[in-house]
Amino acid sequence: MIILDRLQMRWTIVFAALFCLQTARMEAQPLVWDAVSKDYTTKPGETLINFSFAATNVSPTDILIRGVRTSCGCTVAKLPPLPWRIGPGTNDHLEVTVDIRGKRGTLSKVISVETSSGLSLLTVNVKIPEDRGMNMELAKADRQAVFKNDCASCHLYPTIGKVGEGLYQAACGICHESDHRATMVPDLRALAKSTNHDYWDTWVRKGKEGSLMPAFSKVDGGPLSDEQIHSLVSYLTKTFASLDLGNPFQTQ
Predict the structure, then answer these.
(1) How would you classify the pairing of strands 75-78 and 118-128?
(2) Rounded Cα gap, residues 130 and 181, in angstroms
(3) Engineering a disulfide at 83: which of 64, 95, 137, 211 sits with its beta carbon 3.0 to 4.6 angstroms away?
(4) Per-residue pLDDT tens for 24-52?
(5) Contact yes or no for 182/189 (Cβ under 8 A)
(6) What range defines the domain where residue 163 resides?
(7) Average model confidence (pLDDT) for the chain?
(8) Half-sphere exposure of 146 toward its Cβ, with a 13 Å CA cutoff?
(9) 146 and 221 co-located in one domain
(10) Among 55, 76, 80, 66, which Cα is nearest to 118's?
(11) How far apart (Å, rounded) are the C-alpha atoms in residues 163 and 236?
């Protein structure tokens, strides 16, 4: 009886091992990447960081890449026209560019690759040292750049049709409440001095030359209408402390 029990246990272990092996084979991705996460530390003056992911089709059939999405507009994937076909036993490359202008700290961006064999998730991590004066100067040279090209997907489009608190989150919170904001971008919830209605109205409409703060008024090249600005200024005035911050355009 003991011998039978031992034999039964051994066969159970064998079948379990075979089952796990078969499951692993079924779950194995036929599109193999050279890495699913890549890191880079920036050098002074760099504003666009490029990554390249190599993909190999280890299956006996074609794999179609149907779509690629990134976690924000500052990260752009460059790829051939879709559907992108990778033949059996062949490889190709997915190029990814991250715009780091006005950013600080470590940025982590996700790239979702939808294929005929399943979903692949890739990650790029960019470490931006504090000493990046040239990068900041380039960002300040065109503070309205956040409303143009790829940046518009994060800084312009989300503001469309928004008012009040929703507009604050879309237009202001994305920078002022970001963990990776530049040192010159203040946390509006931790200001040492108070504000008033006129202060917020001036900042929102005109921004500040020589800084990262863009002008949000349509008259000055921004995306917001007068009605939106009124609603945003009203929200800021009610939400944040009413102290005198002085002249926002005063030269230090």
Answers:
(1) unpaired
(2) 11
(3) 64
(4) 443 468 999 999 999 999 987 788 999 99
(5) no
(6) 142-239
(7) 80
(8) 26
(9) yes
(10) 66
(11) 12
CA distances from 15 to 5, 74, 191, 228 (A): 15, 50, 65, 66
- The burial class, CB within 10 Å (0-12 / 13-18 / 19+), for 159 is buried
174-217 per-position pLDDT tens digit: 888 776 666 677 778 777 777 889 889 988 999 888 778 889 99
Count the domains in the chain. 2
pLDDT score recorded for residue 25: 42
Q: Which residue has the higher pLDDT, 171 or 178?
A: 171
pLDDT digits (tens, 9 = 90+) for 89-103: 999 999 999 988 877
Triad 10, 14, 19: Cα angle to 5°: 145
Burial (CB count <10 Å: 0-12, 13-18, 19+), residue 86: buried
The CATH number of the domain where 72 resides is what?
2.60.40.10
Residue 88 lies inside a defined structural domain of this protein: yes
Q: Would you state the torsion angle of the CA atoms of residues 161, 165, 171, 172, taken in this order, to the nearest 10 degrees?
A: 170
More confident residue, 187 or 239: 239
Judge if 183 and 218 occupy the same domain: yes
Q: Are residues 39 and 90 in the same domain?
A: yes
Predicted pLDDT of residue 90: 95
Residue 9 has pLDDT above 60, yes or no: no
Cα distance between residue 218 and residue 221, in whole Å = 5
